[in-house]
Write a structure and sequence with these properties.
Elements: H1 22-32, H2 34-58
Helix pairs in contact: 1-2
Length: 60
């Protein structure tokens, strides 16, 4: 028995508005999880800055 797709294709079912972009979904998720997102963002910034300072120190 051939398998049929469960979801209709986008060409057969045009929606009036486009699906939200990844940036819009990420921003909506960041607003919903404010504290955790800010913590991860600050952790990422700290790690990148320390990496750059460490590389600058090693290559001076």
């Amino acid at each position: 028995m051939p398998e049929t797709p469960t979801a209709p294709s986008d060409a057969a079912n045009p929606s009036p508005e486009a699906p939200p972009s990844f940036v819009k979904l990420a921003m909506r998720n960041m607003v919903r999880k404010g504290g955790k997102s800010l913590f991860h963002f600050s952790l990422t910034v700290t790690a990148l800055l320390s990496l750059l300072v460490g590389l600058a120190y090693l290559t001076r």
